[in-house]
Description:
By secondary structure, this protein is α/β, with parallel strands linked by helices. The chain has 13 helices and six strands.
Amino acid sequence: MSPKAAREVLVLSGPTASGKSALALALAEAWPVTILSADSRQVYRGFDIGTAKPTQEERARVPHRLIDVADPDDRYTAAQWAADAKTCLEEAWSAGRLPVITGGTGFWIRALLGGMPIAPVPPDTEMRDRLMAMPDLHARLAEVDPVSARALHPNDRFRLARALEIALVTGKPRGATPAPSHDWRVLHLTLVPDRTRLREAIERRTAAMNEAGWGAEVQALIDRHGSDLPLLETLGYREWRDVLVHGRDAAEAHASIVVRTSQFARRQASWFRHEPDAVPLSAEPDDSRQMLVRRIITMCEAWRA
């Protein structure tokens, strides 16, 4: 049974390297789908290898949206992504396709689905720069908006500054702003991979990214935008920048990327575990991709019944 295109949304979330994108592509073999990326770095042009961005062949085979929609020196916010995602949803429904939102940026997914309100505060570049210069930025945000502080990594200074900017301008934390509403039916499945297999997948993927020219990609970004580009603080890109600019040992950087990615994956898993409407989709060590796809189809059909 093919899912109705009318105002239904499937979300496939989960930690990095858990196989979300591959599952979404496999679903496209059973249903007409449009894949919407919920990845806060895949929106940026030039951030390809290190974000595991779908290949051109994959994008030609299945419609993908919200990839390569901003330049690295643009400020693309969760509110902008949510607004763009709504447009993409309407386009997918009009084309008779099921929108499949795939990614690990839980904050953005929550912003779209309505659980994380977005304050209507236009970005203030000068104020943001002052806030980003604060040495205790994360601690300061925790004082005025503990919910956002818990959701953001202490090193994600761009989003920490944005959250603090909103709290200071509005005089209240982000959670106090009325949440948006929608009239879609949503099935949110979140992958819960075997922890050992996930660590192994992260190690393999990091090595493959390095071999595919991750370092050259970072060098091109430095040449074009400078080594102080804020987005180069992104996991993995920061380590490669330190190799290229500060002479850090490449093997040490690789090990650091694996460790930090594994830590990041645990935080992502914790985030989605606490999402009230997310249905866990366990991936056991002997589960094949085909088995998971069949389980997803079965769950979708039960949801629609």
